Amino acid sequence: MVEPVETSSDQTFERSAIEKWFEEGNKSCPLTMIPLDTSVLRPNKTLKQSIEEWKDRNTMITIATLKEKIHQFGDDDEVINSLKTLQDLCEQREQHREWLMLEDYILVLIQILGSRNRDIRNHALVILCILAKDNEEAKERIVTVDNAIESIVHSLGRRQEERKLAVALLLELSKYDLAREHIGKVQGCILLLVTMSNGDDNQAAEDATELLDNLSYSDQNVILMAKANYFKHLLQRLST
After folding, report:
1. 131 contacts: CB under 8 Å, gap ≥ 6
2. Which N-terminal stretch is annotated as signal sequence (predicted)?
């Protein structure tokens, strides 16, 4: 039940169901057959709050249960299905994303970037990006996990879809100073970004170019870009 309402007979129904009942020409209560005032539908706020609280408890239990399934590195299909459920929850509500943070999911998601299954890695990258978007605390937590940035950068050298997800995540992380400093220091990262900036995937190329722009604050990064035949920021420095 999503929107419980009371009728004039004090019976509670789902709003859409009782409205359909009335639209079909019925004017009596479906349960008691007492004649109803069809203009009276009062929101049952107490029941609605109880339903929301029940849903929240179930969601919190689901999030905690899925963590165990993912963390155990069991059957790949089971892990993928668990990650799909998590992704759906993250996309639904900000509160769900906060609950993932409370369950310390970031560490688990970083760990499974080492999986041999690319679908598992892809889902982990998507969820990390959702958590990091417009959330400084999430960005900080990701950066402070050992080898987190290195693991994400490693995905830049894999298949197209994974590269695209990885560069989108790194771009989001680069809005956080500590992450930006770390990204440029990972061996091979800038070369991979330069390669992607010249690639056929327009979105990935745009993200890689923007990420290179964000990394250009550092002279050392600009030198690495030039060594990879990407001279945009070196020329800008020489002209000022």
Report:
1. 90, 97, 100, 101, 105, 106, 138, 142
2. none
Whole domain around residue 32: which residue ranges?
1-43
Determine the straight-line distance between the first and last CA of the chain, rounded to whole angstroms. Answer: 65
Does residue 182 lie in a domain region? yes
CATH number, residue 180: 1.25.10.10
Reading the block at residue 161, the tokens are: 């879809």
Tell me the pLDDT tens digit for each residue of 29-79.
999 898 998 888 988 888 888 888 888 899 999 999 999 888 776 689 999
Report the number of distinct structural domains present in the chain. Answer: 3
Confidence of residue 26 (pLDDT cuts 50, 70, 90): very high
Predicted TM-score of the model (pTM): 0.82
140 with 71, same domain?
yes
